[in-house]
Amino acid sequence: MTGSRYAPSKTELELNPLMRYNQPMIEIRERNAVRKVFLLAAVVLVVACAKTPETFEELTKAGERAFVDEDYYQARLYFSEALAKKPSDGRLLYLLGTTYHRELMYDSAVFFLKRADLLYPNDRETNLILHEAGTEARDWEIARSALRVLIETGDSEDDHLDELAQLSLLMEDYAYANHYYRKLLEKEPDNPDRYIQVANTWAELGYMKEAIAMTDSAIEVFGPQEQFVSNKGLYYAVKTDYEASERIFRSLLSQDSTVRVYQLNLANALASQNDREKKREAYRIYRDLQTVAGAELRIDSMISVLETELGIERPRK
After folding, report:
1. Residue 148, domain member (yes or no)
2. Which structural domain range is residue 89 located in?
3. Over the stretch 32-51, which tens digit does the pLDDT of each residue have?
4. What pTM did the predictor assign?
């Protein structure tokens, strides 16, 4: 009938159920598209409304979540922003320092962990990380200080004596190095290295008598091993007992005349004595060594000094 809306037949309704609502298919598609647009807008609105961390507490929690997720870069950004709000928060300094440590940025880790340690001295957890970071950053003083805290808070000093001694050596703190090496010698009297370490630290402290005595003790226990005898010759040279040093290196060379370091040490002992013939012998040794290993041994200056003292003119080329 003219002017009336199209009414679908029963057969058409069965074939296309959507026509029950008297709507063409094109209208259904349009309405579905509109729904999708509204859903997308809702998702965007939710994301936009997600609150960006701003307060100290929010930034700290966001940093902790990122740290747990091993997103250390993002954790560091959150912790740094939070720290700007509370620069003296010890826990946050610890978290930031630990984050830098996980990122292998050891100098920065030491900086923040040390600040945390100043606020809360002798905290074990802080010093565990500080010890590792200080070692990796080659900050030996920090590493040793942190290790001492670990000992004070439960670790056995005996388990760390070797490291304490080595760290002290690296710091050139020979008094403490000697202290720790003597403790190690008490524990390990059958270890020849401990005698050498104690003797060398005595020598670094300028106690040549004690260095020589310790070396003699090693010789009594282990016999006249070359490393002991050679060191003893050097200690005598430092003590300015050049004749004793000369005797020792002549003895070593009588066993093996090819060892250049013994030749050099003998020449040094001879050149240091107020004896013209010995100086001439030293000059000959230096010239021989210069031929085979001059650049390695750096003895040109010694040769020049002896040439001046002895009035020797080197032939022109």
Report:
1. yes
2. 51-155
3. 544 544 444 444 434 334 57
4. 0.77
